[in-house]
Known about the structure:
The structure holds two protein chains of two kinds. Chain A is built from 17 helices and eleven strands. Chain A has helices at 3-11, 61-68, 80-87, 112-125, 130-149, 154-164, 168-171, 178-183, 186-196, 212-223, 272-285, 291-299, 331-348, 352-369, 373-387, 392-401, 405-415, and strands at residues 20-23, 29-34, 40-47, 91-96, 101-108, 202-208, 247-252, 259-266, 303-311, 317-325, 421-428. In chain B, strand 19 and strand 20 (555-562) form a beta hairpin.
Amino acid sequence: MNRENKLVADTFQLPPTPIEEFTLTNGLRVVLSPDRAIPVVSVAVYYDVGSRNEREGRTGFAHLFEHMMFQGSENVPKAAHFQYIFNAGGTMNGTTSTERTNYFETLPSNYLPLAFWLESDRMRSLKVTQENLDNQRHAVQEEKRLRYDNQPYVNAFLRMNELIFKNAANAHSTIGSMEDLDAATIDDVREFFRIYYAPNNAVLSVVGDFDSSEARALVDKYFGGISSQPLPPPVDVSEPQDVSIPEETFHDQLAPAPAFVLGWKIPPRRTPDFYALSLAGSLLFEGDSSRLYQKLVKGDESVVSIEGGVDERRGPSALYIFALPKPGQEVNTIRRQIFEEIDRVATDGPTEAEMEKLRNSLCNDAVRGRQSTMYRAQRLAEFALYDSDARLIDSELDHYLNVTAADIKQAVARFLTGANRVVLDIVPAPAAADTEEPVSATPQPPGDPHQPASPAPLIPDMPSPEPPSPLNAEVPQLQSVPSEQPKDPAEPPRQTGPLHP
Amino acid sequence: MSQPEIFRSHAPAPLPPHSIAIPAARETVLANGLSVVVVEDHRLPLVSYRLAFRVGGAFDPPGLPGLTDLLAGLLPEGTESKTSRELADEVARMGASLSAGANSDYTIVAASALSRFNDEILGLMAEVVLQPSFPENEVELAKQNTKESLRQQRAQPSFLASEMVSRVMFGDHPYSVVAPTPESIDRATRDEFVKFHRARFVPNSAVFIVVGDVKQEQIVKRVESLFSTWERGADLVTNFPAPPVRTRRTAYLVDRRGSAQSNIVVANSSIIRTSPDYFPMLLMHTVLGANASSRLFMNLREEKGYTYGAYTNLDARRTAGSFRATAEVRTPVTGDSLKEFLYELDRISKEPVSEKEINDAKSYLTGVFPIRLETQEGLTDQLVQIKMLNLPDDYLQHYRDRVQAVTVADIQRVAAKYVKPDEAAVIVVGDGAAVLDQIKPYCPDIEIYNTSGKRKSLDAPATTDIEGTWSIEVETPLGQSIPATLTLTRESQGFVAKIVSEMGTADLGAVNVNDNSFRTTTFLEMDGHSVEAEIFARFHGDQTEGTLKLQNSPSLPFTGSKD
Lengths: 501, 563
């Protein structure tokens, strides 16, 4: 640890998060974190099931289940879940990733029993019926059609997983195969629910304005009587170091212009190399002052956009860079410049100014995220589920702050190499021979590169008020909270705040 | 399954509500008129800053729409002593953020940082607001980027819908213009920015809002020392023409060929933000369409499955307003969706809402209120609106009481007053050929526009001869619009075609015109290479549109009209 690091670590302290952890007799792990400042409470239920748990021939089940969970349970009619939450002024959603499926709501704090009633009823008595299954299969297929097949560049991102990872548990997409979903029988789905939606396979976290002993009694009342189940089969996500397929060309009928994605296989989350590579990613592509932005978007003006992200997993993870060159620019030259910049980090390491920027950004992001009870509830649930230690919410920052310039240099030299890399070229496919050319769009980057292959949340964004956008459970949710005041609907979205950096 | 538990059979009643302490905002007005509003909140070592000006796009000079927003965006792009890069680096070094933008009513310079950077951030904000240098290269880049994003916006049907609804609802009022044009961007010179900045960005129209881990006296002192030399300017005069009065339902169809969905907006005029009808309107809007349990969502999405979501929008601004019902629906159900929209608008304007609906709406609005105040940004946004839209200072303190005070009769009164389906503007952005007949039963009066906003006709009059010269504009992915002419000359067997542009002349030779369209392949000479090009053109009356596809490149759309 160099002197500068020590200085930051010494002077910066996150306010400690009050945490009570306990496990019910049925195995449900519970994290309570009272904060009486504002009469708001956030509840998150994390199930330890994601696409990593899906066998071949059964892909897409975890995400299908996210939909099924809103189809009603013994005492909650179909679609009533939304109604109860919205009528109380709350926000809610559910998302699925490789690692887990989560459900969460923020409510005025006097509605805490409602959240427990809704979450516990579906945990104990979800209505897994043929009708609901057929209905939600179609909903998922529609979602795939709209959000994946009808968008440029998105399916290329799904393909990246298969090029980077060799293990089928890691390589398939969260949305899964439509054939697998079609082949699912009601018995398969019931079995999936029994195994993975058991209290002993879940974490419940509650943050906000409540009295701990009252909350504890409510948790017992609503969740205590749910039967536990045998533990799910273990998951093998181990990977050989080398990538599956290092180069490929993706023909994208919707792509208005050529683009490319680069990907590297990197070590699992919460390892020293992961911390270092995650910071390396930040200095390469995070924000307007990042190296690649300054070089390619500002300096050479050769790309429309350059974006990147880290796909953080409990097993082998990945780092991505997506570049959308300006039409007419030489793709190979841009790619070479990116590799050269990465090599510079591997050779010279970050500058001291970059290290200062990284550390201050880490502190800033950590503090900003904590404003929201939902952010804290999600982080606590994640750490409890993945690491059996909710207290990491306070100490995890130190692992990042302690990364040195030398650590970053070494990790980049070791992992962001040609041997460990996938290059996926996206070329516009020849348009189908029809006379009705669709309205052509200017190239635009695909959605969120941080979660390149994750399905859309269940509830769409509304013009106003907006539900939380859960696509980035790993980063602070910094968008505005709901407002009854339309943000000037007549106008395109504006960047009027630091909320949209 | 577990044992039956009787207590589960009904949703639990809420606990008694906990009170919310509305944070106290302390306001100080400096000698030059700058108001400083501070809320101390020491829970986290974080601060949010907003320097807000009561000048927005509605005050753009004639012929220069978008100037205010462009200007705001340029503030952090260079000052008398720092370049854009130096400013960005300095902000990034602190892990902070600093940005600026404008909407139609106001402009905001926003920042957020850890509290230990308080002095530095305030210093930077003063610098970008008081000493922007509008460097020529940054002005040029901002103009290019704005043109590019304008191009991207024009590809979005939601933008086209917003553009058309504003145009028809606001007429001569400046809210009618939602975006600049490439030409108005070209006219925005550095001199215009300097002049406008000097005249409009004055302390007496500004409010500095600071929320977070600060001491009020220290903030006021620091702001005073940084901004005391800033001289008072002329007060803004707001004297805008009134929006037009609508008397009959009319459809405005924006023909976006190949559109997979139709964007529908049904709009009526409505209130300004300070109207005494605001809270009844807010409740009516909540019952009808504010969220996913409102009537429109339940009908169009849950019951009919026409759309991913259907909502209303209460657009109440400083000097005018509208009330809009919107959805993006599948093309084949455009007409059916219009029917449901009109049904719901008619129903709420004629029948009282139920007790359950008004109670649900009240619990929604009073419930969402504390959630809104959870973050510094949430509170700061509220304070900005209070100050910029002239709401009372105790607005937050009385918000929930005012929601609770609204009655069923109040809702019915404002619904009858403002929701008038028979006078509504019905905007549809969609595939004209596929939706025109679907719209007709609900709106006999239909005006048709192309995606550039020009009036057009869908029924191709057979009388227009396609022989002659057509002026076309080819759109490139970079946002340029390349003018060209397409000439068709009748020969014995059919037509001979030729395209002339600044890039050269392409003889297309003989083309086969079938059903008012032709498709042909030719070779163009470009940079000494021979490049294969496929051209498709279709003619309706005096309008033409089509595509130009070069080898290994995406196809470029063009539109045009006969000379």
